[in-house]
Design goal:
This protein has 231 residues and is α/β, with parallel strands linked by helices. The chain is built from 7 helices and 5 strands. The termini are far apart.
């Protein structure tokens, strides 16, 4: 699990959902001079509006290539984001919430790893955060370290020694306010990002789901104006 080595000139696969965290990673990688390959997973999520945000961001940063990959996790269900289950609106609660999508980051990183090996990239970047987050188990440093170890065992490039895979998690130990401040320093237009799990019919953030609450908290604590349109 690495976050500090130079990415200048290197191909990097960035998981880009269209949210604030992944967009900050995109800005970091792009500003570092990486050759960014942006991967967005269309998992038939409730908040599909984020896919357009991802496309806009990828265009803005002129990435090498942007793939929006269909992978219908609604076929599995098991989450308020992929099944007909109400998104909780009572505030961030202890425990793993129903908005957790089973094994989502494991699945997404596995797909990113496949693309990375295909294009000769040894670096992956994901915007997981283990401080101000909703309690998802696949956002913890232990998970990221385990995946990185697995990547170097499960690939031809890793076994033959032609690549040493690194999963970059630059936001892992930041508060949401810290992420907002970092995004501002990197020049990210945060108004282009999407966070809400349950958008209104007219395309606004609901303002009450966990993701909206964390977003609002981040801007407030960072002392930076929130450009988001809330219902």
């Amino acid at each position: 699990m690495q976050t500090s080595e130079s990415l200048a000139g290197k191909p990097v696969v960035v998981l880009l959902s269209g949210g604030l965290d992944s967009a900050t990673c995109l800005a970091l990688a792009s500003n570092a001079g990486a050759r960014v390959h942006a991967l967005t997973i269309d998992y038939n999520q409730r908040h599909r509006i984020e896919l357009q945000a991802a496309k806009t961001l990828a265009d803005r940063y002129a990435v090498q290539r942007h793939i929006i990959l269909p992978l219908d996790l609604r076929s599995f269900g098991g989450s308020a984001l992929t099944a007909d289950i109400d998104v909780p609106k009572q505030g961030v609660q202890p425990g793993i919430p129903i908005t957790y999508v089973p094994a989502r980051n494991t699945i997404f990183l596995s797909v990113a790893l496949g693309w990375a090996e295909a294009v000769g990239a040894a670096d992956l970047m994901i915007g997981v955060n283990a401080l101000d987050y909703s309690g998802y188990p696949d956002c913890r440093p232990e998970f990221v370290a385990a995946f990185e170890a697995m990547a170097n065992l499960a690939t031809k490039a890793g076994v033959e020694g032609s690549a040493r895979y690194a999963v970059h998690t630059p936001l892992l130990a930041l508060s949401k306010a810290g992420i907002v401040q970092l995004a501002a320093r990197e020049g990210l237009d945060m108004g282009l990002t999407w966070s809400c799990y349950d958008p209104t019919p007219d395309g606004l953030h609901c303002g009450r789901c966990d993701s909206c609450r964390l977003r609002q908290k981040g801007f407030a604590e960072a002392g930076i104006a929130d450009p988001t349109g809330y219902a």
